[in-house]
Amino acid sequence: MKPVPRRTFALVALVLAAVIFVALNIAADTGLTGAKLDLTANGQFTLSEGTRHIVANLKEPVTLKFYFSKQVAAEYAQTVAYAKRVRDLLGEYASASGGKVIVQEIDPEPFTEAEDKAQAEGLTGAPTDSGDTVFFGLVGTNRIDGKEAIPYFAPEREQYLEYDISSLIYRLSTPKKTMIAVLSSLPLEFGPGGVQAMMQGRGQPNLTYQELSQTYQTQMLRGPFTEIPKGTDVLVIVHPPALEPAQMQAIDQFVIKGGRALVFVDPDAEMAAQQSPNPYQPAPTPPSSDLPALFKAWGVGYDPAKVVGDLKLAQRVQTRDPMNPTALYPIWLHEGPDNFDNKDPVSANLQSLNLASVGALHPLKGATTSFLPLVRSSDQASLLDAGMIRTTQDPQALMGEVQPTGEKFVIAARITGPARSAFPQTAAVKSGNVNLIVMADSDIFDDRFWVHIQSLMGKKIAAPFADNAAFVLNAVENLSGSSDLISLRTRETAQRPFTVVRDLQARAEKDFQAQEKQLQQHLSDTQQRLHELQQGGEAQSGNVGLSAAQQAEVERFRRDLVQTRTKLRDVQHNLRKDIDALGAWLAFVNIALVPILVAVFAIGLAAMRRRRRVQALGL
């Protein structure tokens, strides 16, 4: 038999390889279209357990109408790519729901009934250069005429895409909303400036309160109430005003009878300073708040005159000092995962909290309740006088006041278990099991600390950079008996802090602060003495000028002045020495180390292959 020529064999092998390649692609396209591999740190493109639980437990079908202007948006690659991700995610919802989530895609072309319907259903259109409008939103409906909408899928909220869609479905699947009552001395429903600012068109309602109002049925408690409204599932207290005994007893009885409560007190509420008088709060809001009788009955210790200062968690702020334009501010804390209880559903998935002027909680001796910390400070913290905090504006001075105790102060805690009424003489119910969460900070509600507000086609888009609102919503949801949205709310945040750099900054500023302050004082004294000598010489001698001895002293002070300024620059340079060294090392790793390792690997591989060839040849 004549052997097959090598050339023919090679051609046949190439043809077979091409056929196998095409066959594998067809098979993959047919059978693996839903397969994916999510390599993101937090599983950003994989449905969470909370979402799967929501769609798996739908009692009635939910229809999701996805409006996207395909033709009009074709020239905008970023929008088209984002629309594909939304479409794919909606497909995941449909697959996981077992037919309970019905997805419809609608292309509202210009001058069509579909475009009119998109506008009628409350979607927001984005104008293009051609004058046409791009619709890119979602409308959800249920069988009982309930309707919810996402007016426009803003790119700024892409990391919250699953939460936005799942919360829409959740609201459609639970027509009866949880009822929460809110008691606060802060203008949460009006924002900074209170009702006057709102009437003048300057008001911006607190975003966390807006989220609560959207998700739950909310009722504000005002005036001399004597009972918590019937049907209330969760009582939310935020920086409470001074309460009458009857009001305190109403709260006491609500909690003792099994009502759930979420309480925020504050030794120095910075939001209070933003409030102007309004009809509901004619007097300025006090900076501190407390519920002493109730806390004692619940087994909670709290001092409204003490603020936690923390060197490790201090946020960096702008200053008015041109020589030090930024500084660490130890009473504004940036809390990270290491500071949260990783087992409690309210705090387990939190990425970050930005808090201001917080207090400290602790269990009272002999308390019958259980005290579970949810949020803590670092061990580089101490308690500062709240009065001093309000009068001291210098961040560096405050850094010097913090003397770490090694204790991690509790900022938020879950309180559960048996408790006695705070009013045993007059209360109808003398004891019961309480279930509440207490936080020694109310500025968690302050929009400044957790969200950027952006305008998109006249609509305000919230782009969170911390989980402040998530903590509040998680706590309300958990206390009301549901936790489906908790894991979604805190899956990802925009801020990924450089914790190593922040620790280096705090340590450097602590080490060099005293030296810098001493040099600054010496510099000021030298300048003052030099000025006095020059003024004295002019007053003493008229046109004659300074004596030889005085001139020599002036020259000595001038040299001292130059040397002091040089030392001061050296100290300020040392503040960044370790950070610059870290930056240089990272730059070396990214730019040079990897190529060097690749080159070393290549040289080693070549040497190994050469040695094998030599061994094969028997040389």
What structural class do the secondary elements suggest? alpha/beta
How many DSSP E strands? Answer: 21
Order of strands side by side in the largest beta sheet? 7-6-8-9-19-18-16
Output the number of helix runs: 16
Low-confidence stretches: none
Task: Calculate the terminal CA-CA distance, rounded to whole Å.
Answer: 40 Å
Radius of gyration, taken over Cα atoms and rounded to an integer in Å: 33 Å
Brief summary of the model shown:
With 619 residues, the chain is an alpha/beta fold.
Structure write-up:
By secondary structure, this protein is α/β, with parallel strands linked by helices. It has four domains: 49-164, Glutaredoxin (3-Layer(aba) Sandwich); 177-303 and 359-375 and 410-497, no CATH class; 505-575; 581-619. Helix content is 40%, strand content 20%. The chain contains 16 helices and 21 strands. The chain has helices spanning 6-31, 49-56, 77-96, 113-120, 161-173, 194-199, 207-215, 245-256, 292-298, 386-391, 395-401, 468-479, 486-489, 499-541, 548-574, 577-617; strands at residues 62-68, 101-106, 125-127, 133-141, 147-150, 179-184, 217-220, 234-238, 260-264, 300-302, 306-310, 314-318, 326-335, 353-356, 361-363, 370-376, 381-385, 410-420, 431-439, 451-456, 459-464. Strands 7-6-8-9-19-18-16 form a seven-stranded mixed beta sheet. The longest helix has 43 residues, at 499-541. The two termini are 40 Å apart.
